[in-house]
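Thread: assembly with ligand

MN 10:42: here's the input set. Chains plus the small molecule as SMILES. Want everything predicted jointly, not piecewise.
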Amino acid sequence: MLEAKGVTIRFGGLTAVDHVDMVVRDHKITGLIGPNGAGKTTFFNCISGVYKPNEGSVIFDGKHIEGKKPYQICDAGISRTYQVINLFWNMTAIENVMVGMHPRLKSTFLTDLFKTPAVRAEERAAREKAYEWLKFVGLEKYANEPAGALPYGGQRLLEIVRGLASDAKILLLDEPVAGMNTKEKAEFDGLLQEILKKGVTILMVEHDMELVMGICDYLYVLEYGKLLAEGVPDEIQKHPEVIRAYLGGE
Ligand SMILES: Nc1ncnc2c1ncn2[C@@H]1O[C@H](COP(=O)(O)OP(=O)(O)OP(=O)(O)O)[C@@H](O)[C@H]1O
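BT 11:07: finished. Tokens for the full assembly:
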């Protein structure tokens, strides 16, 4: 479904992502791991349109998307979350989800300006749908609270659900459990399974090895921008190069 071929990005003399090939299979959880500075977030940025790769291609549903703008990539069905949570802090939780739904809404600047009955009906329907999304992640009680008032784990979930609300086919999660407590992490595992059941494919960068090894169907390992290994978690855990590079030889 999503395929990267030879993706390369350079910052001056540094090749942050170096000819990386990756296949993200439909309805699976693919993990991208590697030591700090390996190029994981930069790779995400190439897929989500923040950067245009210097070389290589990214193909989604049979179409080249490398070099497209982030909003075009989002419209195509790829949504992402950020390492540093990126919400509209002064908007309520439900409004944040509605913003996520915006690409799928029909209203335009002019119809919004005049608040036609059709716009009001669409807004009502969008609010109801957004509320359903909040329920999906157990955040409905915060619907009318500003995003900044949610507990930290809740903010992470809100960011994910805002992505889902755009009818994403692929969700790119950048360190989704960073900062979550043990209970939130345990629940997160179940949530990812529920997301998969909705037909959404997941690609995630995560440092929490227990989570990654337990939940991912397939893993790619980056080191200094290059692909070091790929395989199912069992293979990766035993891979001598990965143990050397990432697990510090333990
Ligand atoms: N905009 C930029 N300009 C210059 N160098 C950059 C830029 N973004 C990232 N880098 C460099 O590219 C390399 C890869 O960084 P990146 O953030 O992608 O790694 P990462 O694997 O996501 O790390 P972490 O696990 O710490 O988040 C690093 O050496 C980083 O300093």
